[in-house]
Amino acid sequence: MRRFAVLSCGLLCLILISAAHAQAPGQMEPNPPAAELHFKVVRQLTRIASEFDGVMGIAARDLAGSDRFEINADSIFPQASSIKIAVLIELLRQAQAGTLKLEEHVEWKRAQVVGGSGVLQHFGDGTSALSLHDLAVLMIVLSDNTATNLVIDRVGLDNINRTLDRLGLLHTRLQRRMLDAEAQRAGRENLSSPREMAQLLALLYQGKVLDAAHTAAALEILKYAKETPLRRGLPANVELADKPGSLEGARCDSGIVMLAGRPYAISVMTTFANDSEAAERAITEVSRILFDYFQRMAKSNALGVRVP
Fold it and tell me: Among 98, 171, 89, which residue's Cα sits nearest to residue 136?
């Protein structure tokens, strides 16, 4: 017993000496200022999500580094029109594969018009045919639901989901055409999570979904000017390639912020919202906070000093 006590005391002394060495001045692992700034942003985003009257999810990915922000990032949200990003990607993938041509014209009739359609509802019945490229522009820029359904019918709903499967996005799903009331009553919504939508945009930006020419075409269409919650959180001179979505009780917006030197993918989703305007304001606030963070990182060295 005495020998055991001596050994125990000696071991305790060694532990205390080691701890003292580990904590001695000059020996501690420094906490980088950038890590502290990152932690503060996480706290801000967590506060916004927790105080939101409903459910909010956030994901942001640094496309020039390794920074990530994720709050409820794996929760599944209805996408509304944000799912049109996946539709656009499949259209361009098939164009790249030669399955279709973007110059191909599609005829349509008034019987195909659904709610949420922009200019198409004012065209003559059966008097017009638009190219797939032009339908894609209407789908993204004006969020025209009739144009979207025409594109979905041409590329195939199942093909869109198969492409998402190949990209490893197993929770991002197109389950119905736009404004299919029967499908909505049955609970079939178009779905994704903040993490998967940010991942899809990152893969697109990095050229891992389409070749260079079709990647540029996708980003060009997504960058066309439109009023969105993410856009309102950014300076006017910073390009944004995004697609928002809105349904009663749900608001979301996903895109790529083309910040010089520090581009990033961002996806903010809300649901169970009592106040749709408040939901959009919350998305804008998240957009503003993340832009401020990434802009600081783009303009500073590792210690936070602004560089020329």
Answer: 89
